[in-house]
Specification:
The complex is a heterodimer of chains A (about 475) and B (about 550). Chain A is mainly β. Chain A is about 5% helix and about 50% strand. The chains are: A mainly beta (about 475), B alpha/beta (about 550). Chains A and B meet through α1, β3 and β9 of A and α2 and α18 of B.
């Protein structure tokens, strides 16, 4: 009995079924659906499948299928898929768009800006342009508190620009020329935020300021072709700590810089031991433009990005260039090594996971593809729900786009926001935070239902708490 | 076949072969576990397909085992009603039983089934052309090895023998005491001898000296020493060995009241009685309600295993308390004196000695023993783990049996292949199946790369797995029912409640089998593989007073 059943079962698992019409075994395909929320009716063409989502439909003959998912209170979701023999197409976490999105008032009062502190559970909310008008919102505790509880001397400090670093609770505020070109460093905390003036350590305005989130005692400021190092604890400035450089970044208590010969060096804090990581003048000069200035960012130990002032995005893995110009922003998904990047008009994904099978030529390859190219003025994008959706801010409108294994993404509008304000989407709470376009009220919309995130985001929660 | 059934005192060539064969079971088990883990990572589709094939095999075997478990239990239940003494009397009248079984007017399904079995046994005897031995010539010799057990543990067994349906005046008991046993134990055994010497033909004490050359500190050596003493006794009293049935019981064994009459009957009607062993169904009822749930379940499982094995007498191997012809025991050189698993080793020793013409006759009567309970739950867990590891140490027979099979020209090839394969398969599956079912079958999905995650196998495999496990859960229900039927009643008001709670204890089976069955088996095989031979650890047994 085993000898008969076993091969039949194995054939079945590979999708083979007995096709009575052809009197032979035909290899079928399979569809898997899961939706948020669950319980949607599944239609293949006009036929309704007996089960509701999440569900698997095996035994489908290869070909093209028009799929619809319908749930009361939600817009019908439709898509066309091509099925190949022996293959499964998984349409997971399909976010069903409600007929109308419900927004909630998060906090009282009218605001003029939101500044998320990425990698922490905090948002900065602004009611004006002075520090006394800034407030802190805790995403987990859902509480708003003043940013500066005491230190009255800084209350009227003008805020022109905020320098921040992912996963760091330290921010640097620049007052602008109206405020006398002053710099303030803040250790942000709900109970107490400590502010300190560090203007004296910035003789001129740097191109950018960087620090390692794991070591907030040391700040680097990058000027035209040198960096200054500032030890905040000891309040000591090391001017021209490194010179003759065109690019710089800090990571895990090391600094990395590109010199004007396009060589890349690593130097540990304080020890000043320079280790040359890369030296190939010809290749380097083709990759880097000595007239540009680059910010070096590490996504992981082996994934490095170089972002030029003109918006060129390069990486250390072939084919090296991801964006030619005008990069607006990017967001990295650590679990799957996916980088979401966008310009004003396009959104793309760089996949660092895929190994190039032709190993004779290349060890790794980053695969990029553009997922959306009809943007008007894309400012922000966020990964949402296990990387199957992205939240987009385009021309003061918020959209949710679904990334699918086949075809173009589904895109639906969620809401409109106040002009020239930022938004924040929290993967932990599933909420989109924004200022509404009418009154500037601080609002939230639950884009991905919260209980779905209790399990999925436990890990993210722990990681953020660790940080 | 002349063969030294031991891994000691063999030629260097045989030692090398012995070593290779010792490594084989453990190496296979580890290869399966590690290999499947690695395959799940490297080739998840292939691993998933292998797991599907394995799960199907497992569930079909489970169904097969459940069917035979039910049949075996039914036979056990039916044969409880047999009056064995009446049958013995019938056999003593030689020819007439065959005619009698044809002529009987029977009422009820049970009676008809019993009669069919009876007539079949008598027909086999008739076909063999041999005469049954008269019951008046048959003696029973019971050897009870003791090392730490006090009279509280041993006495119930002796009382059980005394009160049994078979005349105790034809029973000789030897209590085989190790010389290294404590003074208290020796005194206790002497007290038992004094108390019960008039109830049996004789009760003797055999003190087994320490440090006899060629012997290890094992129960088999103690039993063999006592058997040699018994042999001299029988010669002195002119009792032929072929008329004696020897039963080697554990110190805590309490035979069923019909055990010896059932045994006598089977001995009488088995054609090749001098070359068979007799295996009852072991149950662990002495202290079953005092034991924690996990201990109860695992030992009921052992009983179930024996019930299932009893349905295939051609491959049945003796286990724990069992009986055999004393002549056969003497012919093969008694129990091995350097092996822990004397109960199964004696079967293989006899099988090899008689060139494959040796088998075990299942008896559908029970012997009850203790569950290895400790003073605390933790101690109980340790005792049970060690006991199961000792049972699994029966794998030490594999290399010796295989060497014999490779050497033998007289044991039929088919018999050697089938027995050898069954022996290896039994130990390897004992050690690996739980791991495959509990952990490894999920691994391909855990390690699923994109290639696997876009195949139909990725989605269909869990459905198949779910269907198979659902089917398997029916097997658990059957086990629950049979365990309820098998359990002894407890004389408290909580009998019903305890029984119902016992049903739910079976839900612990996946964890219990993994930790207290598969893991000890893997432990034992790994020790054999690495040459760390186990010293005998005597299972502690306590009785609540």
């Amino acid at each position: 009995m085993y000898i008969i059943l076993c091969p039949l079962l194995i054939l079945y698992s590979f999708g083979y079924i007995l096709n009575p019409a052809k009197e032979n075994f035909t290899q079928t395909a399979l569809l898997y659906f899961s939706t948020i929320p669950e319980g949607a009716n599944v239609y293949l063409g006009k036929s309704r499948y007996i089960k509701k989502t999440p569900t698997t439909i095996p035994g489908l003959l290869p070909g093209n299928y028009n799929i619809s998912l319908a749930l009361k209170g939600y817009k019908t979701w439709g898509h066309s898929v091509d099925l190949e023999p022996g293959k499964a197409v998984a349409l997971e976490n399909i976010l069903l768009i409600p007929n109308s999105w419900k927004s909630e008032d998060i906090g009282p009062g009218v605001y003029t800006g939101i500044t998320p502190l990425e990698g922490t559970n905090l948002l900065l909310l602004a009611k004006g342009k002075r520090l006394e008008n800034y407030f802190l919102y805790n995403l987990e505790k859902e509480r708003i508190s003043p940013l500066l509880q005491d230190q009255p001397q800084f209350r009227d400090f003008p805020v022109e620009r905020i320098y921040k670093k992912k996963a760091s609770r330290m921010i640097i505020i620049y007052s602008g020329w109206l405020g006398g070109r002053r710099y303030l460093v803040l250790d942000v905390g709900e109970k107490k935020t400590k502010a300190r003036e560090i203007t004296e350590f910035f003789p001129t305005r740097p191109l950018y300021i960087d620090w390692d989130a794991t070591n907030e005692k040391t700040i680097f400021s990058f000027y035209e072709n040198y960096i200054n190092r500032l030890n905040l604890e000891e309040e000591v400035l090391y001017p021209k700590y490194e010179e003759g450089i065109i690019g710089f970044g800090a990571y895990k208590e090391n600094i990395y810089y590109i010199d004007n010969k396009s060589d890349i060096f690593q130097s540990s804090y304080g020890a000043q031991k320079n280790k040359k990581l890369f030296s190939d003048t010809e290749f380097g000069e083709r990759l880097f433009n000595v007239n540009n200035r680059y910010r070096i960012e590490f996504l992981k130990d082996n994934i490095i990005l170089f972002i030029s002032g003109k918006g060129e995005l390069l990486t250390n893995q072939p084919p090296y260039q991801i964006v030619e110009k005008s990069l607006v922003g990017m967001r990295f998904q650590e679990d799957k090594n996916l980088l979401l990047y966008w310009t004003r008009h396009k959104i793309g994904i760089a996949d660092f996971f895929t190994e190039n099978k032709d190993k004779a030529l290349l060890d790794y390859a980053v695969r990029t593809h553009v997922i959306y190219d009809k943007g008007e003025d894309i400012k922000q994008c966020f990964w949402a729900d296990d990387k199957t959706h992205i939240v987009i801010e385009d021309n003061n409108r918020i959209y949710i786009a679904e990334l699918e294994p086949q075809g173009s993404p589904h895109i639906d509008q969620i809401t409109e926001i106040m002009k020239n304000t930022e938004i924040f989407y929290s993967g932990v709470t599933g909420y989109l935070y924004y200022l509404d376009n009418e009154k500037g009220l601080f609002k939230g919309i639950e884009v991905i239902p919260r209980k779905r995130f209790v399990v999925n985001s436990a890990k993210t929660d722990d990681k953020e708490k660790e940080k | 076949m002349d063969f030294i059934y031991s891994r000691h005192n063999i030629t260097s060539g045989e030692k090398k072969l012995e070593r290779i064969l010792e490594i084989l079971p453990g190496a296979l088990s580890w290869s399966i576990i590690i290999g499947m883990c690695a395959l799940s990572f490297i080739k998840p589709i292939l691993a998933a397909v292998i797991m599907i094939a394995f799960l199907l095999y497992w569930v079909l075997k489970l169904i097969y085992m459940n069917i035979f478990l039910v049949f075996s239990y039914m036979r056990l239940a039916i044969e409880r009603d047999v009056d064995w003494m009446e049958r013995i009397e019938d056999i003593d009248k030689l020819d007439s039983p065959i005619k009698a079984c044809r002529k009987k007017v029977l009422r009820g399904v049970k009676s008809r089934i019993l009669n069919i079995i009876y007539c079949r046994q008598l027909n086999n005897l008739k076909k063999s052309g041999r005469f049954p031995v008269k019951s008046e010539h048959i003696y029973h010799l019971i050897i009870i090895p003791v090392i730490k057990e006090t009279k509280d543990v041993v006495e119930p067994g002796i009382i059980g023998i005394k009160k049994g349906g078979y005349p105790s005046s034809r029973i000789i008991i030897i209590i085989a005491v190790e010389d290294r046993a404590s003074g208290e134990v020796k005194v206790d055994m002497e007290k038992l001898r004094e108390r019960y010497k008039k109830d049996f033909l004789d009760i003797m004490i055999a003190i087994h000296p320490n440090n006899i050359a060629g012997e290890a500190a094992v129960k088999g050596a103690n039993a063999a020493f006592a058997a040699k003493k018994a042999s001299r006794y029988l010669k002195e009293h002119n009792i032929p060995h072929e008329n004696v049935i020897v039963s080697c019981f554990d110190a805590d064994t309490v035979p069923n009241s019909d055990y010896f009459s059932c045994l006598t009957y089977h001995y009488m009607i088995t054609p090749g009685r001098a070359s068979v062993s007799f295996q009852p169904i072991p149950v662990y009822h002495n202290n079953i309600w005092d034991a924690p749930a996990f201990a109860r379940i695992i030992d009921i499982g052992a009983s179930f295993f024996q019930l299932i094995e009893a349905t295939n007498p051609r491959k049945l191997v003796t286990f724990s308390s069992h009986s055999m012809s004393f002549k056969a025991l003497v012919d093969i050189g008694y129990w091995p004196c350097d092996m822990i698993s004397d109960d199964s080793a004696v079967f293989w020793k006899a099988f090899i000695h008689y060139d494959g013409n040796y088998q075990t006759v299942p008896m559908y009567t029970t012997v009850s023993m203790d569950i290895a309970v400790g003073k605390t739950i933790r101690k109980t867990f340790e005792h049970i783990y060690k006991q199961k590891r000792r049972w699994a140490w029966g794998v030490e027979n594999f290399p010796i049996v295989m060497r014999a099979f490779l050497k033998s020209k007289s044991i039929p090839l088919y018999s050697r292949i089938s027995h050898g394969f069954k022996l290896l398969d039994a130990f390897v599956s004992w050690a690996t199946w739980s791991f495959l079912l509990t952990f490894i079958c999920w691994l391909p999905a855990v390690f699923a790369g994109r290639e696997f995650a876009t195949s139909t196998v990725y989605y269909i495999a869990p459905r198949i797995r779910g269907a198979i496990f659902s089917l398997a859960s029916c097997g658990i229900i059957i086990c629950m029912i049979i365990s309820l039927l098998l359990l002894p009643k407890i004389k408290t008001k909580l009998n019903f409640i305890k029984r119902i709670m016992h049903v739910f204890e079976w839900l612990l089976i996946p964890v219990i089998v993994l930790v207290l069955s598969a893991l000890p088996a893997l432990d034992a095989q790994t020790r054999l593989m690495s040459g760390r031979y186990m010293e005998f650890w005597v299972t502690e047994k306590h009785r609540r007073k």
